[in-house]
Amino acid sequence: MLHLRPYSLIAVLLGAACADEPTKPPATAMPIRTAASAALLDDNRGNVGLALLESGLFTTAVSTLGLPVNPITLVPVPVNLTGRVLAHPKIHNLYWDDDWNAHNPDAPTHEHIDAFTRALVGSQYFAPAAQYGVGQATFTGFDGSSVFCGPRSPGAQVEFVEIIIWATCEIGFNPLSPIPGLFPAITGVPQADDDALYVIYLPRAATIVEGGCSFSGYHFFGAVPKVRLVLGVPVVFPQTFAFAVVQTSCLTPSGPGASLQDSVTRIASHEIIEAATDPLVGLGWIDDAVVTQGDLSDLFQLLSNVALDLRVGEAADICQAVHVTAPVPLAVTEPSLNNRILVAPYWSNQNNACVPLVPQTTLTIGSPHFSGVATFVTSATRFDASATDGGSGAGITSISYRVFPQGSTPPAYTTVPGATVQFTVGGPDGVYEVDVFATGNNGTSESPQAHLVDLDNTAPVIRITQPAATQYAHSTVLTLQYDVGDGAGSGVASFTPTMDGAGTLSGHGLLSGQVITLLAELALGPHTFMIRAVDHVDNAAVAAVTFTIIVTAQSIQDDVAQFLAQGMIKNAGVASSLSSKLRAAAALRATGHCAAAANVYVAFINELQAQSGKGVDAAAAAIMIADAQYLIAHCP
After folding, report:
1. CATH of 461-550, one of 3.40.50.300, 1.20.1090.10, 2.40.110.10, 2.60.40.10
2. What is the CA radius of gyration of the chain?
3. Using omega within 30 degrees of 0 as the cis cutoff, is the peptide bond preceding 327 cis?
4. DSSP symbols for 401-424
5. pLDDT of 236-282, one tens digit each?
6. Beta strand pairing status for 461-466 and 481-485?
7. Alpha carbons within 13 A on the beta-carbon side of 516
8. Which terminal residue of the chain has fewer beta carbons within 10 Å of its beta carbon, N or C?
9. Reduced to 3 states, what is the DSSP secondary structure of residue 539?
10. In this structure, which topology does domain 360-455 adopt according to CATH?
């Protein structure tokens, strides 16, 4: 919000000229100009009444400030204002003090600022402004504060009026001229004309009294004497000129990777394009939105339709306050600036959008990939980036991308000509940043898009605790114990346990914790328990354990006890008879009398055959017979 001194009528007009104002209230959107609204929202070109009113306002300000009698300025009055654009802006940089680099060590050097200006006029930045009558710009050089206009202290507070007086001196003062305005300024600053635009850079330690850092820059206009020959007679008239002010003390880097230089170029380009499209502040005419401040409304209402005229959105303000648009990286041929400048976007009635129109990149992640809490990919996942020119019609020059582990030093971008590119992510598992942006043939570069992906080339981990790769007695009761996990990966999508290739056993599944009674569910001999697992990005794992079921002299005795407990041996007498035979055979076996033990096991088998289906369940009898035959065949 600007705080204006009562006597400073010139400063009143700055309400439409300020940029980057954090205190500015939300703007009220207005429709694009129609024929019915054009008269209210136009500038004073062709509007004699409005031109007279505005000329009178400025002339009153000039007279009030005493500029006409100031021996430095000698501005003739009245000053006639007619709205215009800068057909071919001639930009000249003016530095407030006489040793910019020494006094502003944390700011861009004047060489860098001049390089930015040179790059700006050589870029496509001004091209969309052709719709408003603005043609190609040129850079005419730079000057510091001259001794003729008083050296400026880098730390001094300055006023709006002080700036305009100083600028008028630098641009027009020549005590050697017999007629004011006949000779160019003694300072060497190029003489003003209808295309002149002077950009004034205030030092880091200097602040503007009226408003402080409620704004970072503004543009306005002044007048200097100039001679025109009329019928061979030199006539002095007031030549208006446009100027912009960048208040560097109010600038700080904003955003990741941003620099103070970016902040300076953003504000400078903001004011430069507005000065080019609306050099005489208060004659605003680019009609998209009302963006001025409410505290000046009472004064504006006294000035007929100037009230609305002052409130009409200026080109860059519209894209800052209404159609909020990020600054645009512009590709330039300027090695000292790393071939890139950051500029402010501005409104285009023709495009109904903010220009320069930047490319737009779409990044598509192919298969396999999985999006949950994070986006997981593998080294086989293809990334497809495709770009459009954003509507500029200029086409795409290239797409640039880089991939690096999050938190590491970013590598240089890989730039591929054209509007499409494909790439993959390689390296150890972990989080990677994928940055991508496109550059258009109009010199604009999209702000890099940052995407985070988790690289997951690791299969799930399977740990099988039970069964183990060992021998189990047939009478053993086995509990499956295993776990399947994917650590920091994409997660287990599925797993399948099998026993000897089958997903079920005796009608039940094979989840961890499942109890398997070997005697009833698995035959003697080798068996394989296997688990296959896959994660969400198709990494597969297999783990298997092969174990063997055997019979011991003790385990076959346990068979009888289990079957008796289950009711498959129907009375204790039969169980006792079978057990006594097994104990006798075990004793013989233990002493190495295998043949004698075999005879006893045969007697055991005979009794089971006789009792099968009667005193002993047939299935139980068959199992115990097979176990006895195993012992006969496997006697030490």
Report:
1. 2.60.40.10
2. 45
3. no
4. EEEEETTSPP-PPEEEESSEEEE-
5. 888 989 999 999 999 988 666 678 999 999 999 999 999 998 876 55
6. antiparallel
7. 26
8. C
9. coil
10. Immunoglobulin-like (2.60.40)
